[in-house]
Amino acid sequence: MPRSGHRVTAKLKAAFLRHLAAGGNVRVAAKAVGFAVQSLYDHRHRDPAFAAAWEEAVEAAMDTVLEPEAVRRAVEGVEKPVYHQGQQVGTVREYSDTLLIFLLKGGKPDKYKDRREVFHRGTIALLEKLEQIAAMSPDELEAFLAEVEAHLHQREG
Fold it and tell me: What CA–CA distance (Å, rounded) separates 141 from 102?
């Protein structure tokens, strides 16, 4: 059973961070040190130094574990079993096109980023009104939409 969050010591935080850097998985790292994930997240929110160290550990895992594994799966593929009538009859190598796409976009964003062209024919006033609408609370938006609807009905009649 995971321990209470009240006993998260500096030594246990350091152990958690080592496990997190080694694998990049918060749940697994928390389990390795015997703490509930939520206790560690609570400490993260209360302790800015721990939060910063947590981010560094995740970045280390990205560099040493997660990104190399993504490259391996995208480029070298993964052997997956093939079954026929409940029996394994062989394997097939599967590659991850999705991982490859993300790696290309991350590695060369200028070349592989998603491109969208937006053409604008309206006025600056329209853009300003759209910004105002985006910032409205749900109640303000509801009142605005009621005004628009009333205006449209007035124009129709």
Answer: 37
For residues 5 and 49, give the distance between their C-alpha atoms in angstroms, rounded to a whole number: 17
Angle between helices 48-61 and 37-46 (to 10 degrees): 120
pLDDT above 90: percentage of residues in the chain? 52
Q: Are 12 and 47 contacting, i.e. CB atoms less than 8 angstroms apart? A: no
What is residue 76's DSSP assignment? Answer: T
19: its two tokens: 């496990």
Whether 68 is covered by a domain: the verdict is: no
Do 128 and 103 belong to one domain?
no
Q: What is the overall mean pLDDT for the chain? A: 88
Asked if residue 58 and residue 32 are part of one domain, the reply reads yes
Place of tokens 């026929």: 84
Does residue 2 contact residue 36 with C-beta atoms inside 8 Å? yes
Distance CA 55, CA 60 (A): 9
Distance CA 13, CA 35 (A): 10
